Backbone:
C-alpha cells in the first residue's frame, strides 16, 4: 500500500497504469473467494477429508515421512520444506469438499516437488533470504533517493524491488506445476471419481494461480515506475 501511494504521489498520471493492475489484483482475489465458496459446499463422492487425501497422495509417492499438520484459518495452507510438513488449514484438513481436495493435493504436490528437487522450487528457496532483504530496503532507498535527487540510490532501490518481482516470477511455475501434479495425483489415486469434481478442482486451483499472476503484474508496474524516476 505504501508503495502504491508513493508511486501515485510522485506521478499522478501513473495511476492510469497502476489502477488496472490493482483492479486485476482485486478481481483475482474475489474470483478465488467465489470459487472456494462454491466448491467448499460440494462434498466429494469419496467422502475423504483433505488430510486423508494428502496422506494418500504422499504415501503413493513414497513420502511416508512427510508429516501433515493443521493450522488455524481458511486457505492458510502451505508446505514447510524445512520441517517437511504439510500445514493444512482447519477448513482443508477436516473437510471433505471438492475445494479441500484440490488444496490438499496442491500442497502435496509441493512436497513432491521438494523431494524430487524440482528446479524452480530449488531456485525459489535459494532466493528467499536475498528477496526478504531486498523488499525491506527497496522502498526506503527509492524514497530517500528521490527526495535527495540521488538517481543511483533510486536505481539501487529499483533493483532491490526487482528481486521481489523475480521471486514472484519464479513462483509461477512452482504453483502451476503443483496444481498439475495435484490433478494427476487425485485422478491416479482415485480420490476424485468424476469429471464434475475434476472441473471444480481445476477452477479452484486456476483461481488461486491467477492471484500470483496479478501480484507479478503489480510488482512489474511498480518496478518500471521506479526505474523511470532515474530518467
Residues:
Amino acid at each position: 500500500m505504501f508503495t502504491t501511494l508513493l508511486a501515485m504521489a510522485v506521478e499522478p498520471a501513473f495511476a492510469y497504469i497502476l489502477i488496472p493492475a490493482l483492479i486485476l489484483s482485486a478481481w483475482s482475489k474475489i474470483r478465488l473467494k467465489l470459487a472456494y465458496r462454491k466448491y467448499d459446499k460440494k462434498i466429494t463422492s469419496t467422502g475423504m477429508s483433505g488430510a486423508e487425501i494428502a496422506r494418500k497422495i504422499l504415501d503413493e509417492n513414497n513420502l511416508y515421512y512427510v508429516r501433515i499438520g493443521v493450522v488455524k484459518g481458511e486457505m492458510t495452507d502451505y508446505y514447510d520444506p524445512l520441517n517437511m510438513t504439510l500445514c493444512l488449514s482447519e477448513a482443508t484438513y477436516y473437510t471433505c469438499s471438492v475445494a479441500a481436495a484440490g488444496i490438499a493435493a496442491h500442497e502435496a504436490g509441493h512436497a513432491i516437488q521438494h523431494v524430487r528437487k524440482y528446479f524452480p522450487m530449488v531456485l525459489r528457496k535459494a532466493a528467499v533470504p536475498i528477496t526478504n532483504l531486498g523488499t525491506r530496503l527497496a522502498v526506503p532507498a527509492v524514497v530517500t533517493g528521490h527526495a535527495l535527487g540521488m538517481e543511483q540510490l533510486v536505481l539501487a532501490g529499483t533493483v532491490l524491488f526487482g528481486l521481489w518481482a523475480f521471486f514472484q516470477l519464479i513462483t509461477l511455475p512452482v504453483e502451476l506445476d503443483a496444481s498439475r501434479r495435484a490433478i494427476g495425483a487425485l485422478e491416479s489415486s482415485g480420490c476424485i471419481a468424476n469429471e464434475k469434481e475434476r472441473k471444480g478442482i481445476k477452477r479452484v486451483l486456476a483461481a488461486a494461480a491467477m492471484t500470483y499472476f496479478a501480484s507479478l503484474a503489480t510488482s512489474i508496474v511498480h518496478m518500471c515506475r521506479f526505474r523511470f524516476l532515474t530518467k
